[in-house]
Amino acid sequence: MPRATLLALIALTLVLAGCAIAPVGPAVMTLPGTGKSFDEFRADDAVCRQFANEQVNGLTPQQTATNTAIAGGAIGTAIGAAAGALIGGTAAAAGIGAGAGLLTGGLVGSGYAGGSWYDTQQRYDIGYMQCMYAKGNKIPVSARFASAPASAPQQARSYPPPPPPNAPPPPPPPSSR
User: Fold this and answer.
1) Which of 87, 83, 88, 86 has the alpha carbon at shortest distance from 100?
2) Using CB atoms within 10 A of its CB, is residue 59 exposed (0-12), middle (13-18) or buried (19+)?
3) How far is 161 from 169, CA to CA, in rounded Å?
């Protein structure tokens, strides 16, 4: 495979991997807790961003997506080269297989990159919300999550009325001797 074609395939893989730009912070809203000043809230925010960053090993969602796409390209290249060499038996066949593997692996890696981006952002957000809540701040939720779930309708049961206040106790059950 010509060197220019291989470089073009590598460039294409990197371009596909770097399409999305991700935020480097929480994607959730938090509000100051009751009785907290805005300065206290900002201090909590800074601490909780650091905590959330530790939960994702310091990687931004963009970095994990790029790593996933590059790993897919590298693995695809290695598998393609090995398959090309085994099937064709020549260096040219190995090069063609490597190019095809790079292209396929890059495309598959790009597909998985979105999932790894979402997973990393979600883990960051969960860590951030846990920390902010633990520090006494508020986390708004949708009204459908805040209300109690509707219980299943129950069948009407009829119970006997209670006895009058000064009624004698009921007779004891018959003994079986």
Assistant:
1) 83
2) middle
3) 15
The number of C-alpha atoms within 13 Å of 154 and in the hemisphere containing its C-beta is 5
Where in the chain are the domains? 3-18+32-142
Q: Any bridge partners for residue 138, and if so which?
A: 31
Q: Cβ distance 101 to 78 under 8 Å?
A: yes
DSSP the chain: --HHHHHHHHHHHHHHHT-----SS-SS--BPPTT--HHHHHHHHHHHHHHHHHHTTT--HHHHHHHHHHHHHHHHHHHHHHHHHHHH-SHHHHHHHHHHHHHHHHHHHHHHHHHHHHHHHHHHHHHHHHHHHHTT-B----HHHHSPPPPPP------PPPPPTTPPPPPPPPP--
Predicted confidence (pLDDT) per residue in 109-147, tens digit? 556 556 666 787 888 899 999 999 999 999 988 777 655
Q: Is the pTM of this model over 0.70?
A: no
Asked whether 80 and 97 are in contact (CB, 8 A), the reply is: yes
Judged on CB neighbours under 10 Å (0-12, 13-18, 19+), 114 is middle
Distances (CA, A) of 166 to 122, 170, 171, 172, 173: 64, 12, 15, 18, 21
